[in-house]
Design brief:
The structure is a single chain. The chain has 15 helices and 18 strands. It has about 525 residues and is an alpha/beta fold. A hairpin with a 5-residue loop joins strand 15 and strand 16. Helix 3 packs across helix 11 and helix 7 runs parallel beside helix 11. The N and C termini lie far apart (about 70 Å). The N terminus is likely disordered. It binds calcium ion (CA) (2 copies).
Length: about 525
């Protein structure tokens, strides 16, 4: 059956345009369904699986957390040897320009899981659990929920939703198959527990109001191997995913395996640190002294109000932090590889869609900023790959959104649209199959009500809630160093981009409202500049 699928796709890829894209897709999917029917009626050929999984493929989603988009080797600027992320690029579509809906964990993950943009859900911040809202968003059928409702074995391991709200989602998963992040019942070691096992003298901290909870360090080299008492939770969750992938199931599965690294605390065994000697670490190429000078007041405030960069630099930890981030990325890449090996060597190989994504990017000093919580490329852009058995391998430069996962998957798996709500994302199946390179509209990322970033093939346009603007020509200025918003030469481009600003701007859902401590919006940052 595998060879039939491959042939039919290659026919499609080389064929003429006698059939329109959607019609072709329907015929192709009908062809797959009839293959399934023949299988059921006459039995599977020797050596082939007898199952309905061809019509309803399995889904494996692999998340990483807080990884700069340019770290994987698949990007030319890749700083880390990531053979397994590269494997993801080699088995399907690698989106070189993918963006989140919100530049932080909870807003981004809620948009992925509900298919609803923050501007409509009102879930903007890390403090907002969507199921606790007093609006429609609390009642929507989530992405895992719609797979559960349609008979899938539905599995969630690790960090899927945002940390604080993971327990809310237990009903979305098949009983016994939800083992969420940092819960002592699910993992041998929580994140804070790891501090007790670091090699002596390797604990790093950064004094400062916003950095005082940051830490990283080196675990002994016998960690994250075979001893179950010496495993970080990402290793443990990978082992769970491996078990699922190594077995046959009586129904298709939908599994999210959410890795926490390379999120802080950057704590991984010594062998990963050794790949990145501190002397080899360079200041990020996106850092430019004085870069904030041409930003409007809200941009400057977002970049530096928490003073993390100043604190990292004065503590002498800039390169150490980058080293630890790289080591953590190498570690998580290896976990991804173990999971992919289990898929490729197991009985589900031929009928499993694989998605790889990161919830947000990460600053390491670019624009004198650290972490996420901003509307620039460094935070909004994320690695993103989708592979569908039999579909072509390609790199796609069209800007796409992680919100597109929900509508794309229900199309690929032939599930009905959710009855509870409309989806804001775009179905990417036409791009995945090579029929189209168009998404149809630019990507919108939003950070707090009223602050938006529009990204198309060439530009990023940012508009803050007080009307202040930034405009970057990414083709000419990949690090967004030159704000062109006031340059009349770009007035037309800016006006065109502004047409994609949202018409709806939902209020923050409650409870709880945004609680961001030192990052809480400072209204003064949005007041006009005093001359
Ligand atoms: Ca994150
Ligand atoms: Ca600048």
């Amino acid at each position: 059956m595998k060879s039939s699928i491959t042939q039919s796709v290659s026919l499609k890829c080389t064929g003429t345009s006698l059939l329109s894209g959607p019609m072709w897709r329907r015929l192709f999917l009908g062809f797959l369904s009839s293959l399934f029917l023949l299988n059921v009626l006459y039995g599977a050929p020797a050596g082939e699986e007898k199952s309905g999984n061809t019509a309803r493929p399995n889904v494996l989603i692999l998340f990483v957390d807080d990884m700069p988009y340019q770290l994987p080797k698949v990007h030319q600027a890749g700083k880390v040897d990531t053979p397994n992320m590269d494997r993801l690029a080699d088995r399907g579509t690698w989106f070189t320009h993918a963006y989140n809906a919100a530049p932080l964990c909870c807003g981004s993950r809620t948009a992925i899981l509900t298919g609803v943009h923050p501007t409509r859900s009102g879930v903007y911040y890390n403090s907002q659990g969507y199921r606790r809202a007093d609006t429609f968003i609390a009642e929507v059928t989530s992405l895992p929920g719609i797979f559960r409702d349609n008979g899938y074995l539905t599995i969630g391991y690790g960090k899927v939703a945002h940390n604080a709200f993971l327990a809310d989602d237990i009903g979305d998963y098949t009983p016994g198959y939800y083992k969420y992040f940092n819960n002592p019942e699910n993992v041998t070691h929580t994140e804070s527990d790891l501090k007790n096992y670091l090699l002596p003298g390797t604990l790093n901290t950064v004094p400062g109001p916003a950095t005082k909870n940051w830490w990283w360090g080196v675990l002994p080299d016998d960690w994250d191997r075979d001893d179950p008492t010496k495993m970080q939770q990402d290793t443990q969750q990978a082992n769970r995913a491996i078990k699922v992938l190594s077995e046959k199931h009586d129904r298709p599965f939908f599994m999210i395996c959410g890795f926490y690294r390379p999120h802080l605390p950057w704590t991984v065994p010594e062998r990963y640190y050794k790949k990145f000697p501190i002397d080899s670490i360079e200041i990020p190429e996106g850092y430019l002294p004085g870069d904030l000078d041409d930003l409007p007041k809200p941009g400057r405030w977002i970049a530096s109000n928490r003073k993390e960069h100043a604190d990292v630099v004065s503590a002498g930890k800039w390169k150490s932090a980058i080293q630890a981030l790289y080591a953590s990325t190498a570690y998580v890449d290896e976990q991804i590889g173990r999971v992919l090996d289990a898929l490729d060597d197991g009985p589900n190989h031929g009928d499993t869609i694989v998605i790889f994504a990161d919830d947000n990017g990460f600053h390491t000093g670019e624009k004198e900023h650290w972490l996420k919580f901003a509307l620039w490329e460094q935070t909004c852009r994320v690695p993103f790959a989708i592979s569908v058995p039999g579909y072509p391998t390609q790199r796609v430069d069209t800007p796409v959104s992680l919100m597109d996962i929900y509508p794309t998957l229900i199309d690929l798996c032939h599930l009905p649209a959710p009855a509870t709500h409309d989806l804001d994302g775009v179905d990417l199946t036409g791009i995945l199959s090579g029929e189209s390179a168009e998404r149809g509209r630019p990507v919108l990322s939003t950070y707090g009500k009223g602050n938006h970033s529009i990204r198309n093939e060439q530009f990023r346009y940012i508009r803050y809630r007080n009307g202040d603007e930034e405009l970057y020509d990414l083709l000419d200025d990949p690090h967004e160093w030159r704000n062109l918003a006031e340059d009349p030469q770009y007035g037309e481009a800016k006006a065109e981009l502004a047409k994609s600003l949202p018409e709806i701007e939902a209020e923050n859902t409650a409870p709880p409202g945004p609680v961001m401590t030192s990052a809480t919006w400072d209204d003064e940052a949005f007041e006009p500049e005093k001359e």
